[in-house]
Amino acid sequence: MMATMSDPTPTDAPSLTDASVLTAIAAWMPTTRWYPLKGQEVDIALETSYDLGDAEILLLRAGDTLLQVPVAWRDEPGSSPIAQLDGRWLVDACSDADAVQALLDVATGRRSVNGLDGDATADPAPAGEIRVITGEQSNTSIIGGDGTWIAKVFRVVSPGDNPDVVVTGALTRAGCDRIPHLLASVTAGWPAGDAFVTGHLLAVSEFVAGGQDAWELFRQHALATLRGEQPGDAPDARALGEAVATVHRDLAAAMGTASASEADTLRFITGLEQRMAWARQEAAGVLGELHDELQAAADRLREVRRLGELQQIHGDLHLGQVLRGANGGWVLLDFEGEPLRPMHERMVREPRLRDVVGMLRSFDYAAGSALQELPDADGAAAGDWVWQRRAEFLAGYAEAAGPVDESDPVFTALLLDKALYEVVYEVRNRPSWVAVPLEAVRALVTAPPSPPPLVE
Ligand SMILES: Nc1ncnc2c1ncn2[C@@H]1O[C@H](COP(=O)(O)OP(=O)(O)O)[C@@H](O)[C@H]1O
Ligand SMILES: O=P(O)(O)O[C@H]1O[C@H](CO)[C@@H](O[C@H]2O[C@H](CO)[C@@H](O)[C@H](O)[C@H]2O)[C@H](O)[C@H]1O
User: Fold this and answer.
1) 198-208 pLDDT tens trace
2) What pLDDT score does 17 carry?
3) CATH topology (fold) of 212-446
4) Predicted local distance difference test score (pLDDT) of residue 6
5) Is a pLDDT exceeding 70 seen at residue 10?
6) Residue 279: count of CB within 10 angstroms of its CB
7) Closest ligand to 162 CA?
8) CA atoms of 201 and 59, how far apart (whole Å)
9) How buried is 38 (Cβ within 10 angstroms: 0-12 exposed, 13-18 middle, 19+ buried)?
């Protein structure tokens, strides 16, 4: 049973193991943006919990997935109530300033909690008034310390290192100036069968004040273009290419590189084949119509011969992971990798092209989402817009890191791999968006990408 910081006396609220509490949480989770199992029938069970005094971190087993749900009992519903039970409010602790302070104290080592370890390289300011980000997010991020830091609560928890802590930590130590530096983190331990495993729960980073979301900047420009307005200069995709190349250079310096062996290449092809099979199974309802084309594309994967240099990459690079700082420079966020990829696969060295195609897919998404909003707009104009951004980005990347060979089978294979992943992501999270990556898959398996004809 829990008590609040303002009222430390025991309460009459039900205990966490009470069926009514889990039932309430199970009903609430699918209403959140971060819940990754929407539309699936899964039983929810309490795996373990950590007592923060005025709040509690729950690790809930939902099918094969372990979910982090910090909660608190309060007298008032606050801004994110889960349920009223026996006269008290069970609330989402991520929206509760006292509970967020407790999480921060664990990260900085000021509060010791059985089963949790904090690790801080700086001394973040007290939480104060907090603000929870409301956006397209797989996790939950909270801005605190008078807008000086942002704490990310990892919603899906896995045994092993989370690259958002380890990779951002390595880039921070290397002094990379294209990322917000990592300030602190929390690791948890829990029993798993006969073993005892650990995994990251939280990362606290510098907050990029006045940062503008690259996704919104590019999407708004695409929208204005499709509306036939004079949109002005597009956001600087060339500088974005340079920024990505800089982070790749810093990652290589901080975490090393390796020349791909034949075994690496084979593993890479097998990985792509397995991901394609996974996507075709997970999104059978929408990918079924492309059965023959996907089969032929799977056969073409065997054309991949040389992977070149491998290194730690971002792993899920898209415009939503980029901010334009107050000084106009681009900053890359969220090194967690793809949320649908098992954690142990996310710190495997990869070709840098995977990040490059992630960004190219994102320009396509920006135009695709603009077309969804303006269904009568000119599809060819949207295509031109994408090709311009793509050319600018690749030119900037090439300037800092050397040219990208778009005819390389690795490039084509990774583009298709990303689009297939996106189809599964949208089926699970945003079914009304699925047409955007599905059209990309269709185009990639029916005709290779080629630029629009030059206008005389
Ligand atoms: N360091 C930061 N400074 C400012 N805003 C940030 C920072 N980190 C994240 N954000 C904002 O929060 C959003 C979600 O963060 P992100 O790390 O991508 O979460 P998720 O892994 O859940 O997708 C970003 O798109 C950005 O708008
Ligand atoms: O940012 P996350 O790590 O949570 O990434 C996941 O969610 C993204 C959406 O929020 C998803 O990205 C896809 O949609 C974006 C527009 O919202 C678009 O810019 C990306 O290109 C597209 O892949 C990402 O794939 C998923 O892993």
Assistant:
1) 999 999 999 99
2) 67
3) Aminoglycoside 3'-phosphotransferase; Chain: A, domain 2 (3.90.1200)
4) 35
5) no
6) 24
7) 1
8) 10
9) middle
